[in-house]
Inverse folding.
């Protein structure tokens, strides 16, 4: 329990320091990688990947490979499905729609295989939203979802 609190505080502090220098990004990443391999470490690394990437995109993509392996080793497949969506988001923001689609779809397939309704829905939402954006009919999608129609 104390370990979770320490990691949470650590991540909050690093979250407040959004203008991290490349060296502080690397130090934070390295300190997270030194933690004992368990679900807390995996959660911290996924959160770290989610919160970074605009300027550290390549480093986050490299780190994600390690995080995917850790999720497999620990057999924490729901967290792996979450990471697929996080990385899909990073690629989507960079307008790499083909790769983004692959990650969202991999997350969908994994979530479906482990019967996770939440992550299957998250991946399906991301796939649908990406399709709407690419077809430039997102205004129709948003309007159809509006409670005011």
């Amino acid at each position: 329990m104390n370990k979770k609190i320490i990691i949470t505080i650590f991540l909050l502090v690093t979250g407040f320091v959004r203008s991290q220098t490349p060296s502080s990004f690397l130090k934070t990443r390295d300190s997270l990688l030194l933690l004992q391999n368990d679900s807390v470490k995996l959660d911290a690394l996924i959160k770290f990947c989610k919160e970074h990437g605009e300027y550290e995109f390549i480093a986050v993509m490299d780190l994600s490979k390690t995080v995917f392996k850790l999720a497999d080793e620990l057999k924490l497949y729901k967290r792996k499905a979450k990471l697929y969506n996080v990385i899909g988001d990073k690629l989507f923001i960079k307008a790499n729609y083909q790769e983004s689609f692959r990650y969202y779809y991999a997350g969908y397939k994994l979530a479906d295989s482990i019967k996770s309704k939440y992550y299957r829905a998250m991946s399906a939402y991301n796939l649908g939203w990406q399709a709407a954006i690419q077809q430039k009919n997102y205004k129709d999608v948003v309007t159809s979802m509006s409670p005011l129609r």
In short: The first helix runs from residue 2 to 16. The chain is about 80% helix and 0% strand. The helical segments are 2-16, 22-33, 39-51, 57-74, 77-93, 97-113, 117-134, 138-145. The chain has a mean pLDDT of 84.
